[in-house]
Design brief:
Strand content: 35-45%
CATH architecture: 7 Propeller
Mean pLDDT: 89
Strand order of the largest sheet: 17-18-19-20-24-23-22-21
Number of helices: 1
Number of domains: 1
Helix content: under 10%
Structural class: mainly beta
Number of strands: 35
Radius of gyration: 20 Å
CATH superfamily: YVTN repeat-like/Quinoprotein amine dehydrogenase
Low-confidence stretches: 1-35
Distance between the termini: 19 Å
CATH topology: Methylamine Dehydrogenase, Chain H
Largest sheet: 8 strands, mixed
CATH class: Mainly Beta
Shape: globular
Length: 425
């Protein structure tokens, strides 16, 4: 199904705490599927878990597809509307532009678009926006690869406010700004600079900011209220793992690290399992942190969970029955496949080299895989094992963006700009 003509197009030339757990798990329903929204990167609770707890699908049928420009970002869905971004790849850099797209999540019909001047900036990938839009209380928040920041009306696409992080561009930033905006209370936090950047979500006014330019690709993660008895956000940059008060930027907890980064590729958002935090260091492997008062201590740093090529340490992990699953990639033989390590020790338990690099979703005792080659795969999780039961080609371009599952609908996109919606039965 092709998307309809634009209902509205807005254009601009850009010049250069916590209210409670309910803020993190928005409960608006997508009318067509009866499922929770997916209002920001990694889902309602920032843990990549769909609202459904069981997965029994035997087939996948395409409902629609749409073209949205070149981009590495994923999609977000709120109140029946889907949001994503893309670049038009104009060879004249003075005319190249990013576009924010709003589509009907059930039909793919275009509702509005908003564009601004921005270069494609390909580098070991097709280029375009890498940060996924965030939807919150009727507004959409975005940041471009170059640091253009916008707040738009979610229903109309009209600009509410704009800001800039362009001054924080790092000289040798391989992929520009890639982390998605995270909203906690009245604050929207960006992984920009050495300590992050926080703006008032209603006005765009700066609340606190970094002093140095440091690369960071991992999306800021709100931490559970019970962890510190106060609002806190986790920020993984190239240099540090920080736990900050979202309202002030002041440190809530410290981390005495044992690692020294050798690259600038940290791109996986920290995640939590059984009260402990897991960090993916692109050059070193996976570390597990335990909290002692207000100090995080490293339990271990696992080289068994290290990506053989650090450039690919940005995809999602799935935890099931104490096992961590993730897809790796290497340019040499033997380094590409599905890895499984013990969540308690970080030791490798299994590796299956018949799977390509990509992203994973876990639903109950099932796992869904979207390979970088555009293959949708799912199957059963066992004891440190995965048994494939379905495989289907759904996209032709490079698929590094995370798929989204809402009820019986699965959304995915490729870097070349095709978004597809599938009904799973």
């Amino acid at each position: 199904m092709k998307r309809s003509k634009s209902v509205q197009r807005l254009s601009t030339s850009y010049p250069g705490i916590w209210v409670g757990v309910v803020c993190l798990a928005v409960s608006l329903l997508v009318a067509a599927s009866g499922a929770e929204d997916w209002p920001h990167y990694l889902g309602p609770d920032f843990d990549l878990k769909p609202g459904v707890t069981q997965f029994n699908a035997k087939s996948a049928t395409k409902l629609w597809d749409a073209k949205v420009g070149i981009g590495m970002c994923s999609v977000t869905i709120s109140d029946g509307l889907l949001y994503t971004m893309g670049n038009d790849a104009n060879e004249d850099k003075s005319k190249a532009k990013d576009t924010v797209y709003c589509l009907d999540a059930r039909t793919g019909a275009e509702q509005w678009t908003f564009d601004y001047q921005c270069v494609l900036k390909p580098n070991l990938h097709p280029g375009g926006p890498s940060s996924t839009p965030t939807v919150h209380q009727g507004k959409v928040y975005t940041i471009s690869k170059e640091g253009h920041i916008f707040c738009l009306d979610a229903r109309t696409g009209k600009q509410v406010w704009r800001a800039s992080a362009e001054q924080y561009q790092v000289r040798r930033a391989w992929w520009g700004f890639a982390a998605s905006p995270t909203i906690i209370g009245d604050v929207v936090v960006y992984n920009v600079g050495d300590k992050g950047l926080a703006l008032n979500k209603n006005t765009g006014d700066v609340l606190w900011k970094s002093s140095e330019n440091v690369v960071g690709y991992a999306t800021p993660k709100p931490l559970p209220a019970a962890m510190f008895g106060r609002p806190a956000v986790a920020l993984l940059t190239n240099r540090e793992f920080l736990v900050l008060d979202p309202a002030t930027g002041r440190s809530v907890a410290t981390y005495k690290k044992t690692w020294q980064e050798k690259s600038n590729c940290n791109g996986t958002t920290p995640y939590i399992y059984k009260g402990r935090i897991y960090l993916v260091h692109s050059a070193h492997g996976l570390s597990r942190l335990s909290l002692d008062g207000n100090v995080f201590k490293q339990d271990w740093l696992s080289t068994d969970a290290k990506f053989p090529n650090e450039w690919f340490a940005f995809n999602t992990h799935v935890i099931h029955d104490g096992n961590i699953y993730f897809l790796t990639k290497d340019r040499s033989p033997g380094g590409t496949g599905l890895a499984c390590v013990d969540a308690e020790t970080g030791k490798r338990k299994a590796f299956d080299d018949k799977y390509a690099f990509g992203n994973l979703l876990g639903v109950g005792d099932k796992m869904i895989m979207l390979s970088e080659e555009g293959e949708l795969i799912w199957g059963d999780l066992g004891e440190a094992s995965f048994k494939e039961t379905h495989r289907q080609k759904i996209l032709e371009g490079l698929c590094w963006s995370k798929p989204v599952l809402l009820g019986d609908l699965l959304y995915a996109r490729d870097a070349e700009g095709t978004v597809v919606c599938l009904e799973l039965k």
